Amino acid sequence: MLEVTCNDRLGKKVRVKCNPDDTVGDLKKLIAAQTGTRYDKIVLKKWYTVFKDHIKLSDYEIHDGMNLELYYQ
Amino acid sequence: MGSKKHKKESKKKKHRSRSRSPLQNEERERKKHRKHKDRKRDRSPDVEEVPVDSHLVKEKEATRSHSRSSSESRDRRARETSRAAHDDADNNREKSSESEARTAERSQSPPSTSGGAQESLSVDETNKLRAKLGLKPLEHAEKPAEDGKIKDDLGEFYHKPAANISQQKKSEKIREKLEVRKEKRKIEQKLQTTLLAEESEDDDAVAWVQKSREIDKQKREAAKRAAMLDEMDAVFGVSELVAAEAAQERQQSYSRHMLRGLRVAHDIDAIADERDVVLTLADKEVLAEDKEDVLVNVNIVDDERTKKNLLEAKKAKAGYRAYDDEADLEAAALGFARPVLAKYDDEIHKGRDDKTRGFHIGDDHVLEAKHFRDLMRQERLQGGGEKRLESLHLPQLRLASDYLDEHEIQAKFKKSKRKGKIRKKAKHEPIDVDDYDAGTAPLETDDTDVKPEQLSAAAAGADSDTTDPDTELQLALARARRLRQAEAARSLRHVPKVEEILENVKEEPAEAEAAASSMVLDATAEFCRTLGDIPTYGQAGNRDHLAEIMDFEREDMEVEPEGDSNAGAWSRVDVDNEKPADLAAGSCVGLAAEPSLGAGVWGALQLALSKGYLERAGAAPMPHSAARHLLAARHYSIEDKTYGEDDKYGRRERGGHSGPLQDFREKNNFRPNIKLEYVDDDGRPLCPKEAFRYLSHKFHGKGPGKNKQEKRIKKAVQEGLMKKMSSTDTPLGTLQMLQDKQRETQSPYIVLSGVKRENTN
């Protein structure tokens, strides 16, 4: 289990607990459940890397306590 | 903080309440009552727990609102979406009253790690959510392995935990301490002996007294036993034997008379009188041939060595000594031989005399000799005999002062007489200075009267003088006296009055006075002098060389004594011996009279000679160029003469209308035949290249190198050879030889085989 912090820097900052073998899409769903945004409107980024939905967090080497940028499309 | 947020929310609620349905209002009413409760709860550390189903609630609400009226204001929905999160919280509160169990659940949820404004679900809530989303539940965080190993992120490898340095240190310290303790214990065990004080403590003073008494007793017994043994010895006569032996030994021992004849290696002076000096046998080589024992005193040996070293050092230092040492001077004063070039006095085998040095003990005559020497020295010091001793100590040096001191002022110096030849001015008479001093010489004033007796006496003196042997002084004196006589005689004849004297003075012109014994240089003479440079002047032999020096003052000849024969007497300048030129001979001083033509052919010839028309055959060569060059001005040129004016006027004149006055006409017919040929030192013509090289060498003042020169010479020689070489034959004349052979053999061929030739020959 790991906990990821997502911040859109507009007032929303959530900490989400997830598994390393969850996909980014799953994470987005969790975030959507916590924030109330639709998950298909969420974009997760780290710097200029846009995380794709079908890839696992562990493959992106997303670890516990990491900060992800939260954008909307 | 939480409370603040609540306030905000309450505001929002108020705001919302206006637009909400009455049902909701009712709910709010209820909530108002619960507010206090809520606040209390919010103050607790676990704040802002978002209920798991908040978004569901929201969704429900949304659907509800959709179902209620799609016409409901869109703006409101937008607001809702934008504030979704806050609404969620709101909703949560609104619903909270419905489920008591949920609150219990919330309180159980683990406190979120960060106290920031972020929302995080608990694990359980997340699991529920995941179940709803169709995801597998969260993996439970593995506990770190019991053995302290930590799995890496991928869970594949175990990592050995890093060693805790502080713990290590602590353990090390403890270990050290333990070791120290151990050591201490060991040492203590080793040193554990019963101390005196500890021991004596239990024995007490009584025991100590007993012990000491025992020791005393033992001692006494030992002494008693020794006495008994002595007694026994005395009885048997052992002690007498021992005593006799000792006496014998003493007799045989080294005594004074044994030292007789032993050599002491020091001067007898070195050993101070009436003082004990410890002498030891000097070291000597084991294999030394002479077995003589020598006594030395260590201190004296040291002294001698230092003295010698000092001397040597001085010698080494003194390469050149302008002044002698004081010690040397003193030695000289005492009549000792002074060393000349002492640095070479070093003997090569100085050590050899060591064998004879010193004195033998019991030798009385050494002492006597010393005594005698002392006496001699004393005598010499006191100035005995014909010798006079003078100290060579110089007065101490002082700083020179600028002023005379008293002694110097009072001191009067006798003027030293000038001796030797003095070039005398042509005065009337030479007068001896001694006579002046003695007061015998007459003053030269004319009014001094000399008495006849005096005169006669003087004459007598003079006569007697003449008989004397001819020494310089006497001759001079004699002459002086004679002069005096003559003067006196004249003055006797006619004693002048004051008027006469004055007249005499008037008569003599000042010039004449000045001209005495010197040359007169007037304009005429100078002119004549320069005439002397005329090349022909004097060649004709008509000039009298002596004429140049003819205008010397004539001496009154009466005053002139015997003549030059007296070489030893006061010598006079040669000028005085010059014959007076006869002024009558020529009207002019410098120029002789022109020879007259009228005296015949000889006269004509003479004239021609004098004029320089003819040259005398045997005449001395003209003062020629060499001397001339020396005389001529070195830095003189014609340009110098005209420099000033030319510059001033010439230029100014030309300034107005400069340019040539004539047209420039080209010289059409001018065909100069120029042939530039360079020739080297040997006269060989040079090609332009060579010429350039030659000039360049000249210009730079630096000739070609030796090799280059040789090369060039070789080349030139070869060139010469090439020129000489015949064009039809080889240098060895092979063709000629061939033809000769052919002629000899009378065949059109020649056999070129060496082997056959031998045979034929």
Radius of gyration of chain B: 74 Å
* SS summary, helix count of chain B: 27
Give the overall shape of chain A, derived from the CA principal axes: globular
Low-confidence stretches of chain A: none
Write the CATH fold name of chain A. Answer: Ubiquitin-like (UB roll)
Described by its quaternary structure, the protein is heterodimer
Helical amount of chain B = 40-55%
Tell me about the biggest sheet of chain B?
4 strands, mixed
* Major beta sheet, strand line-up of chain B: 5-6-4-7
Which value, in Å, is the CA radius of gyration of chain A? 11 Å
| Arithmetic mean of pLDDT of chain A | 90
Strands side by side in the biggest sheet of chain A: 2-1-5-3-4
Structural class by sheet pairing and helices of chain A? alpha+beta
* Average of per-residue pLDDT values of chain B: 67
Explain what this protein looks like in three dimensions.
The complex is a heterodimer of chains A (73) and B (761). Chain A has 73 residues and is an alpha+beta fold. Chain A has a single domain (2-72), classed as Roll (Ubiquitin-like (UB roll)), CATH 3.10.20.90. Chain A has one helix at 24-35, and strands at residues 2-7, 13-18, 42-46, 49-50, 67-72. The mean pLDDT of chain A is 90. With 761 residues, chain B is mainly α. Chain B contains 27 helices and 9 strands. Chain B has helices spanning 2-19, 22-43, 54-68, 74-82, 84-96, 100-108, 123-133, 165-191, 196-236, 238-252, 298-317, 326-333, 364-381, 406-410, 433-438, 452-467, 472-493, 498-507, 510-515, 523-531, 601-611, 625-631, 638-656, 688-700, 706-724, 734-745, 754-760, and strands at 119-120, 150-151, 158-159, 263-264, 280-281, 294-296, 359-360, 678-679, 685-686. Chain B has a 4-stranded mixed β-sheet with strand order 5-6-4-7. Chain B has a two-stranded antiparallel ribbon with strand order 2-3. In chain B, strands 8-9 form a two-stranded antiparallel ribbon. The longest helix of chain B is centred in the N-terminal third of the chain and has 41 residues, at 196-236. Chain B is extended and about 175 Å long. Chain B starts with a helix and ends with a helix. Classes of the chains: A alpha+beta (73), B mainly alpha (761). Chain A binds chain B through residues 1, 3, 5, 7, 12-20, 22, 26, 29-30, 32-37, 58, 63, and chain B through 50, 54-55, 58, 81, 84-85, 87-88, 112, 114, 116-121, 123, 126, 129-130, 133, 135-136, 138-141, 153-154.
